[in-house]
Amino acid sequence: MDTPTTPKKPGRKPRAASETMTRRELAAAIYKKLRKDSVMNRVSAQTVFDVVQASIDCLNEAIVAGKHIEFRDFGVFEAVTRRSRLGRNPNKPGVTVVIPPRRTVKFRPSRKLLESLAATLPAAK
């Protein structure tokens, strides 16, 4: 018996699990790099995870406080306030809705990161 499929919605395609790096995977990658260094052999994987978690917590607190966070050769994170604007419901195009102002995070990648990304593109034919 065939099950009915729901039509695909336009927009972002879902990411495969292999395309996403989680906190735990980040900690594991850092742990592997640290293990190569003979001085860091005594650091446990849990300690590295705790450091990654503490780092994320500190970044979160700084962004919420409105601080500008800059990582050289990576990028800049900053909290910005988006202004109020008028929008329309696509299902009711005649109805105008006021979208209230909101706070969000903006990321600007560094030139080095952008160049690294551009280098991964296949050559044009």
Write a brief structural summary.
The protein is an alpha+beta fold.
Describe the structure.
With 125 residues, the chain is α+β, with helices and mostly antiparallel strands. The chain has one domain: HU Protein, Chain A. 34% of the residues lie in helices and 26% in strands. The protein contains three helices and five strands, in the order ααβββββα. The strands form two sheets. Strands 1-2-5 form a three-stranded antiparallel β-sheet. It starts with 22 loop residues before the first helix and ends in a 6-residue tail after the last helix. The mean pLDDT is 85.
Give the secondary structure arrangement, pairings included:
Elements: H1 23-36, H2 45-64, E1 69-71, E2 75-82, E3 85-89, E4 92-99, E5 102-109, H3 111-119
Antiparallel strand pairs: 1-2, 2-5, 3-4
Helix pairs in contact: 1-2
What string gives the helices and strands in order? HHEEEEEH
Termini separation: 46 Å
* CATH homologous group name: IHF-like DNA-binding proteins
Mean pLDDT, as a whole number? 85
